């Protein structure tokens, strides 16, 4: 069974959890990066992590894990999961970071409030399977007047998990 890194531990992906009081769940307050591999080699992982850390700094998440530590855990996640991938599967890493449980719930966590870090790895084919037809025939689309959250509110360079406007566009 594939493993997911959650706050310092590797757990089976079916057991990976965040708190119901996590800022990601309460407010969509989470930044992320997604990377993929080509021939089992991660594509520009360092650059993706630099962008992730720029987002982390922009939204003031007090993450103690260094970029180098994050990179090491990413590679460890891939290594632990490789035995569960088919020979030709490529890796899709999803790296999510939230500020963790909200401070008003600190007594639930004995005052220990740390950012939540989750790194999952699963076969890229799950993501792209069935998309080939879309490249051949295209899709119907409408471009609304407002395409995203205005830049005055959130810098568009910040990759955050709040995608409600995406869902509404569907």
From TrEMBL:
Gene3D superfamilies: 3.30.470.10. Transmembrane segments: none annotated. One of its GO terms (molecular function) is catalytic activity. GO terms for biological process: carboxylic acid biosynthetic process. Belongs to the class-IV pyridoxal-phosphate-dependent aminotransferase family. This is Branched-chain amino acid aminotransferase.
